[in-house]
């Protein structure tokens, strides 16, 4: 079955360490997105990519980095510069920009210890 | 920046009662989408509205897009325990990204 796979489901990180969250899709979707979800704040856009080898900053890109070397993969790195990284991270994809709804992965819950 | 406001933040209803959540924007939206997130889960796409005044139904769910394309609502008739979750609206302002509302968390009292 087609879908989006995020790994790991839970991740613990020490302060000062970088960590990379995986997002893989086999839906042949062009557009991919990373969102951060905090309680009571909805979903906030970190980065998005409309096509391979191209990506744009979202509303809260500081302290994060991404790459889009393959259509199927859009990994997110949470760097030590991110001041408050503990959150639920969701990856999503769609065939193009906004003609269709987003398909979300099951998320990665990151905790800084 | 462009924001989508959603109310109420929480709603507790008796099973069988109706439920409504509202989204508002100060700027005209190109389209609006609705998502449902079950507790511990991820958002699942429900529907997209594009036209001014559009109304769409999915069984007990009714979605509306305002005439000015600045507001939208989701109404659930005769709630059931399976309706529990957080409902998000997400709007587009003519660019290639969605702006999500803060969500309405629905709990059902059996």
Descriptive account of the structure:
The complex is a heterodimer of chains A (113) and B (110). Chain A is mostly beta strands. Chain A has strands at residues 4-7, 10-13, 19-25, 31-37, 43-51, 54-57, 64-66, 76-78, 87-94, 103-104, 108-112. In chain A, strands 2, 4, 5, 6, 9, 10 and 11 form a seven-stranded mixed β-sheet that branches. In chain A, a hairpin with a 2-residue loop joins β5 (43-51) and β6 (54-57). With 110 residues, chain B is mostly beta strands. Chain B has one domain: Immunoglobulins (Immunoglobulin-like, Sandwich), CATH 2.60.40.10. Chain B is 0% helix and 55% strand. Chain B is built from no helices and eleven strands. In chain B, the strands form two sheets. In chain B, strands 2, 4, 5, 9, 10 and 11 form a six-stranded mixed β-sheet that branches. A five-stranded antiparallel β-sheet of chain B has the order 1-3-8-7-6, with no helix packed on it. In chain B, a hairpin with a 2-residue loop joins β6 and β7 (61-65). The model of chain B has no long low-confidence stretch (mean pLDDT 95). Classes of the chains: A mainly beta (113), B mainly beta (110). The A-B interface holds A 31, 33, 35, 40-45, 48, 50, 58-59, 90, 92, 97-98, 100-107 and B 1, 6, 9, 30-31, 33, 35, 41-48, 88, 90, 92, 96-103.
Short description:
The complex is a heterodimer of chains A (113) and B (110). By secondary structure, chain A is mainly beta.
Annotate the secondary structure layout.
The complex is a heterodimer of chains A (113) and B (110).
Chain A: E1 4-7, E2 10-13, E3 19-25, E4 31-37, E5 43-51, E6 54-57, E7 64-66, E8 76-78, E9 87-94, E10 103-104, E11 108-112
Parallel strand pairs in A: 2-11
Antiparallel strand pairs in A: 1-3, 3-8, 4-5, 4-9, 5-6, 7-8, 9-10, 9-11
Chain B: E1 5-7, E2 10-14, E3 19-24, E4 31-37, E5 43-49, E6 55-58, E7 61-65, E8 71-76, E9 85-92, E10 98-100, E11 104-109
Parallel strand pairs in B: 2-11
Antiparallel strand pairs in B: 1-3, 3-8, 4-5, 4-9, 6-7, 7-8, 9-10, 9-11
């Amino acid at each position: 079955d087609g879908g989006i796979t995020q790994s790991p489901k839970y991740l613990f990180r020490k302060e000062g360490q970088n960590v990379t969250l995986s997002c893989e899709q086999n839906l042949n979707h062009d557009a991919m997105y990373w969102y951060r979800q905090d309680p009571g704040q909805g979903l906030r856009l970190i980065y998005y990519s409309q096509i391979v080898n191209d990506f744009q900053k979202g509303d809260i890109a500081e302290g994060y980095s991404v790459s889009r070397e393959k259509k199927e993969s859009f990994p997110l790195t949470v760097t030590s510069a991110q001041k408050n990284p503990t959150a639920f991270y969701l990856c999503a994809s769609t065939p193009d920009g906004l003609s269709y709804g987003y398909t979300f992965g099951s998320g990665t819950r990151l905790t800084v210890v | 920046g462009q924001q989508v406001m959603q109310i109420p933040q929480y709603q507790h209803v008796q099973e069988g009662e109706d439920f409504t959540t509202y989204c508002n924007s100060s700027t005209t939206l190109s389209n609006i989408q609705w998502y449902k997130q079950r507790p511990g889960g991820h958002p699942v796409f429900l529907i997209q509205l594009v036209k001014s005044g559009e109304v769409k139904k999915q069984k007990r769910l009714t979605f509306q897009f305002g005439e000015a394309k600045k507001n939208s609502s989701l109404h659930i008739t005769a709630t059931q325990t399976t309706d529990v979750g957080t409902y998000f609206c997400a709007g587009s302002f003519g660019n290639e990204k969605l702006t999500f509302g803060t969500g309405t968390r629905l709990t059902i009292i059996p």
